[in-house]
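__Protein archive entry__

___
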Amino acid sequence: MNPSITLATARRILTQLRHDPRTVVMLIVVPSLLMVLLRYVFNSQPMFSHAAPALLGVFPFTIMFLITSITTLRERTSGTLERLMTLPLGKLDLLFGYALAFGLLAVLQVAVAAGLSLAWLGLDIQGSWWLLLLIAVLDALLGMALGLFVSAFARTEFQAIQFMPVFVLPQILLCGLFAARDSMGWVLHWLSNVMPLSYAVEALGRVTGSSTVDLTLVRDLVIVACCVLLALVLGAATLRRRTP
């Protein structure tokens, strides 16, 4: 990896996004609007405080997966990636440049949604707000990394979207958001244990219910961070210059 090339790639992605206001609005505004909708669906501050922390991770995770998988695929199908790969640009330089650019947007995305929830919607947490923000950003980065990874296996944008039921929806269903993981059958519980979103939601739940930073919380954060790095490395290994 070359840090200067990685930073140049990140600047290029951010410049492109600046000229695509619809994508920026989707990235920044949509999670906040969903949190507002959730608050008035429950119409109860205690119920909202119970469900909102997990969804602060799930919403950015889902949106970043969609945006990054389609954006990367578009660069490959348009020939942009093939032209870039003729330069002294490594695959890791490219993917980590994407990660840096979308990571900055993820920080802004989650900061807006979390700030709105804490300041206006009445979200009540026992732990520190910065730890909640850190975990939610890791969720967004996880969605971004998985989106970069699966884009290598899609030939069209429609195919990229089709990967969502495979990589995103099972994680949402089994992460403990709808039912406690301990109450699931052993097969579902095992599947839940190998899905990184489960650890992210568990960490968000711990921050909500306690101000103590214990070993389980640290373990959850390390697992999610390692999964982000693993998805980026696998994405670099499977990245193709163009779509056949």
User: Anything to note?
Assistant: The chain has one domain: 3-238. Residues 45-77 form the longest helix (33 residues). The chain has a mean pLDDT of 84.
